[in-house]
Amino acid sequence: MSDLTALLADAGLFVCVPWILWRVMGRVVPIAVIPILIGILAAVWHLPLKSIGVPSFYGDTIGWIAVLVLAFTAGMEMWQHPEGEAAENALPKPPVTRLLGGAATALGGPFLVGTILVYMFFLPLPGWHAPAVTPLIAAASIGLCIAVSALPVLIGIVRELPARDKPLGQLALKLAVIDDATLWIGLALLQFAAERQTAMHSWGLRECLALLLLVALGLGGSLASRFIRNPPKLVIWAVVPLYLSLGSWASMTLGLHELIGAYFAGAFMPPSWVKRLPFETVSTFCLIWLAPLFFGHSGLRIDGDALTWPSVLASLSLVVISIVAKIGSIYLFPPSKDLSRRQTLSLGALLQCKGLMEIVAATILHEQGMLSEFAFASLMVLAVISTILTGPLFHLFKPRPSPPV
Q1: Which of 23, 58, 117, 184 is deepest in the core (most CB within 10 A)?
Q2: Rounded CA gap, 109 and 130, in Å?
Q3: Is the distance from CB of 55 to CB of 283 less than 8 angstroms?
Q4: What is the rounded distance in angstroms from the CA atom of residue 273 to the CA atom of residue 221?
């Protein structure tokens, strides 16, 4: 089969079919979930997709570039204000210390709970031992996936909320931006911990150059924010691919994943420059039309034999742990003292969404040998279920409208 025919089959299965299903279902299920679910089912049913060239070489490449762009635009959003204009029924603005404390609790609580429970009860199970790292790092890797919130999916959900619910959604986005940055830092630290035996002893000129390059990107963005706030738009467009490629190369050279460098390269871009770019449009286009190839291939890469009934039960257990730990952590220390009980619970329902971020994080960890096949399969199922449950849980917990007087 020719490369073009294989690409068309790839796009038809993981781009066109998910888009049609997404539209037929009234966009109730986030589109990022559908191709991963198709890929998982194909792997479990052992469908002979290789006979038609799926996954295709060009599909793999296109999907990978799209996810690099998504990571880059997610970094760009770090310093933006995703909440938009203030609503009439906006919540009181919490102090920065309270907001940071709430974000730390929302991420740290599920991470600690997940890591401890996985270390004690999941890793002793057959097939859960990670091939390349110690049990503690493997447990922390799964704990990080349990704790993460899906910023890109949340942005789409909040945009579709009615006006009276938008303030809660805006607060969820503020927390998710902080959690998102912490996720990438956590991924980098875990990979450094996994590579510490060899990476630090094998550093040479390339690694030092890569580290200096990342520092230069951050310093260059900071200086540009102060002294070159409004350059010609052509200059901004020329700098974007330079930052993306250099950041990705630097993190790869340091032994980290390219997506980590792409994210921080986007975060290093001057905020005033980012405001002049249609990064939301680019992100949406990649999410709907290109990145599904990556999501679908991620589902295909799981070991279909690993998704047995015991691993499905383990996945459901991880779903319960993830939801309860996330909502419970926010309930114990909400990011604002002015939230009611229902507002706090509905905020937790939004932040327990995993979506794209957990899929990307689990894929990175799996490629580095930090997750077993069983753990990777379970986390894919967790991402699908938690994302699907986000809307129903939010509508279950959200404050009821006051009856007319």
Answers
A1: 184
A2: 23
A3: no
A4: 10
Rounded CA-CA distance 196/134 in Å is: 12
Q: How far, in Å, CA of 151 to CA of 78, rounded?
A: 10
Q: Give me the helix-helix angle, 166-195 and 355-367, nearest 10°.
A: 0
Terminal CA-CA length for the chain: 69
Q: Is residue 306 part of a domain?
A: yes
pLDDT digits (tens, 9 = 90+) for 165-224: 888 888 888 888 788 788 888 888 888 887 764 444 456 788 889 989 999 999 999 999
Structure tokens at 142: 């799964």
Amino acid at 116: I
CA–CA dist 43, 52 (Å, integer): 15
* Residue written as token pair 């006979």: 51
Among the listed residues 149, 236, 139, the one whose alpha carbon sits nearest the alpha carbon of residue 194: 139
Q: Is 403 a member of any domain?
A: no
Element (H, E) at 364: helix 355-367
pTM over 0.70: yes
- Structurally, how many domains does the chain consist of? 1
The residue assigned the tokens 């007087």 is 405
Range of the domain at 204: 3-397
